[in-house]
C-alpha cells in the first residue's frame, strides 16, 4: 500500500509535467522555460496553482487571474499518469523494468494527446527513443539487443510498407511517417512480437472506433482519424497483458475443438 501510494503521488506530479510537454513540444518550445503560465493572460502560476488535480478543483476549472476556463484535459492527463504509475507498481516487474515501462507509458500519453490535437507524432519523442532502445535492452535485460534491433526494423518496415502501398494505390497519403516511427519505437523497447500485437490491437480498436463514429454520424467515411493513440493503447496493453493474451490466442483452437 505504501509503494502504491508513493506511485500515485509520483504519477500525479509527472502527469502535471506531461501536460506541459503536450502543449509545448508540438510548438518546438522548451518544456522548462518559461514557468507554467496562463496562455490567455500570461500570468505565471503560483506553486499552489500547480498542484495536480487539487488546484483544478479548488479553482473550479478557471484561471485565477482572467477567469478563463481550464481544459479538463489537465486533470485527465494527471489522473491517467497516476493510474499508469499504480499499475506499474502493482505489476511483477523488476525495478529497472518498472522504470522503463513507466517512462514508455508516459511517452505514449504525450504521443496520444499530441496526435489527437495536431495529427502529428513529434520526432523529438520517437527518434531519440529509437536510438536509446537497444541500449535500454542491454541495461535492463527485458529483451535482447538483437530483439530490439529486429523490433525496430519490423516495426518501421511494416507500417512503411503499408503507407507506401496505400499511396501507390490511392495516390494520396493514408498514414503519416510519425506512426511508422512510433511502431519502430515500440519494437525497439518491446521486441518484434510486441510490434505484431500492437499493430493488431491498434488496427482492431481503431476500426471499431471509426465504425462507431460513422454510425453515430460524428464522422464521414473519409474523415482523418489519428492512429497514434490506438498504437499507444496496443503497446501498453502488451506491456501488462500481452504475453498472456497471446497465449490465450494460441490455445484458442484447443479450447474450441
Question: What this model shows, in words?
Answer:
- It contains 9 helices and no strands.
- The chain is mostly helical.
- The protein folds into 2 domains: about 1-90, no CATH class; about 100-250.
- Helix 1 runs parallel beside helix 4 (about 95-120), helix 4 packs antiparallel against helix 5 (about 125-140) and helix 6 runs antiparallel to helix 7 (about 175-190).
Distance between the termini: 43 Å
What can be said about the biggest beta sheet?
Answer: none
Mean pLDDT: 87
Structural class: mainly alpha
How do you describe this structure in short?
The protein is built from 9 helices and no strands. The chain is an all-alpha fold.
What structural keywords apply?
single chain; 257 residues; mainly alpha; 2 domains; 70% helix
